[in-house]
Amino acid sequence: MALIRQFQVTFDCAEPERVARFWCAVLGYVVPSPPEGFATWSDVDRSLPPERQGAGFVCGDPSGVGPRLYFQRVPEGKAVKNRVHLDVRVGTGLVGEERLAALEAECARLVALGAVRVRLLRADGFNESCLVMQDIEGNEFCLD
Asked: DSSP string covering 94-144, please?
């Protein structure tokens, strides 16, 4: 029998906490409690050397089912299309106009959070419709 491993998805970004909080709002994820001895994550951050302050942030699925998301500060900006992206599953089991309505409703919610709508990919007889979007730092993801 194959061993199933847990994994986390890591995002390179300029502002880890800001991007993490965006994805918390998108996915219903939460920021875990700070380590023992610290009242807030800001307290943790202030305890680090200056070059490490603000360098990373984490959030996770409150049910423990989905992967942990880790956001790490990198010096360079995004230059090309992501090689890996998240598909946010909001239209599962829906087809046609009902699926499009679900995608559009979620798109409107995410645009209000700072996401950018890129383009609608319509159903083609093989794949159902999906919406290509970008998060607040330009990382592509799909509403599927």
From this structure: --HHHHHHHHHHHHHHHHHTT-EEEEEE---SSS--EEEEE-TTS-EEEE-
Radius of gyration of the chain from its Cα atoms, rounded to whole angstroms: 17
Residue 99's domain comprises: 86-143
The answer to whether residue 115 is domain-embedded is yes
Round to whole Å and give the CA distance between 110 and 116: 8
CB 110 within 8 A of CB 134: no
Query: Tokens for 51?
Result: 């070059």
Tokens standing for residue 9: 């998805």
Residue 80 lies in a domain: no
Q: Which residue has the higher pLDDT, 91 or 4?
A: 91
pLDDT score of 84:
86
Whether the per-residue pLDDT at 6 is higher than 80: the answer is yes
Claim to verify: residue 95 and residue 131 sit in the same structural domain:
yes
